[in-house]
Amino acid sequence: MDRSGNYGARGGSRRNGEIGPGGRYQLGKNLNEGHFGKVKLAYDKVKDKYVAIKFIPRGPQVTEYVEREILNHRTLCQTHIIAFKEVFVTDLHLCIVMEYAAGGDMHQFIGKHKCLPEQCARWFFQQLMIAIQYCHLRDVVNRDIKLENILLDREERLLKVCDFGFSKGGDDSEPKTCVGTPSYLAPEVLRNGVHKKRYDGKRVDIWTCGVCLFVMLYGYYPFDDPYDDSPEKTKKMLARIAGGKVEIPHQQFRPNGVSREAVTITEECRNLLAGILEANPAKRMSMDQIMHHPWFQRDLPVGALKYNEGVDQIDESTIARLKGLQSVKEIKAIVQYARTPGNAS
C-alpha cells in the first residue's frame, strides 16, 4: 500500500486507536479543535516520540489553502518552527503529522500571566522574529501570525511557530485577499483586501508580530476596547485598525497578589513598537531594522543574527531529500485524493 495510508483508519486498526501507514501512530487526547477540524496527540511507534496530527475532514474542506499550507510548511526546517513530518489519508480525514510542542501556546501563557515582564517579552519576541525571518528568507509569508499559533516547549521557554494555513510561497500568487485574524489585521490588508489589491505579505507579518509583542507586554490587543461588550465591538475595532493610530502606553499593569503593580515600559521598547505598528507599510520597520534595534539586541544570544544566514541559498529539493520528506508530486496526489468525500464504512 502507498504512503497515502488509506488502510490506516480501516477496520480494527482505527478502532484500536492506530492510524497512518502500517498503524504507525497511536492516537491520544485532543489538543485543539477549530473550523478546520481537530488536532490530536499521537505516539509515533517508529520514532518513539509524540507528534501532533491535524485531522481535516475529506471533501470540500480540503481546499487550495490546505494544499498550500502543506507545501509551504514542508521544507521549513528551523528550531523555532514546528516541523512537518508527513501527510496521509484515512477513510474520513486528511491527516497532517507535525512535531508536538508540550508547553501549550502563547495565548494560554499570557492568559495565565496577564502580561509579561519586558525582559521575558523580549526573549519570546527575539525567537519569533528569528522564526519569521527564516520563513521570509525561504520566500514564505505566514499571514496569520498570532499568539494561538505560537507554541512553547515543555519548559515554556523555546518558542515554535505553527499553522501555515494562510501562507503564500514563492510559487504562489501575490497576497491580495483579506485573510487573518481580526485583532491582528494590518491596515493595508483591510484596505487592499476588500478590493483584491496586492499588499506586501512580509510587512504584514511584521505588523502581526508587533501585535503579538504588544499583547505580551500589556495583556490586551492594541486596537481592542476591553470594556466594549457591544455587538459592534469587532466592527469598531476594525475601524480603529483602518485608521492606523495606535497608542503605546508608558506602563504595564502587572498582577501583584490581589492588586496590580504599574511598571514602566522603557522608551526603547515603545519606540520599537511604534515603528512596527506603523500604519503605512512603506514606513514600517523592516526585519533588518528590527533586528538591529537596540531593544531587540539587548540580551540577544551570541550568533543569533547569523542564525538564518545562507538559508535562502538552500534548494528545496535538497531539504526534502535530507529529511526524507514526501515529494511535491506525492503530496499533491494525496491532497487530490482527500478531496473526494470520506467513507465511514
Automatic annotation (TrEMBL):
- One Pfam family named in its UniProt record: Pkinase
Entry's Gene Ontology molecular function annotations:
ATP binding; protein serine/threonine kinase activity
In this chain the Protein kinase domain maps to 25-296
UniProt keyword annotation of Kinase present: yes
Write out the transmembrane intervals: none
Keywords in alphabetical order, please.
Answer: ATP-binding, Kinase, Nucleotide-binding, Serine/threonine-protein kinase, Transferase
Q: Where is this region: Disordered?
A: 1-22
Q: Which CDD domains match?
A: STKc_AMPK-like (cd14003)
Is Lipid metabolism among the key words of this record? no
A Gene Ontology BP annotation from the UniProt entry: intracellular signal transduction
Q: Name one GO cellular component term.
A: cytoplasm
InterPro entries hit by this protein: Kinase-like_dom_sf, Prot_kinase_dom
Q: Spell out the protein name for this chain.
A: Protein kinase domain-containing protein
Organism, per UniProt?
Ostreobium quekettii
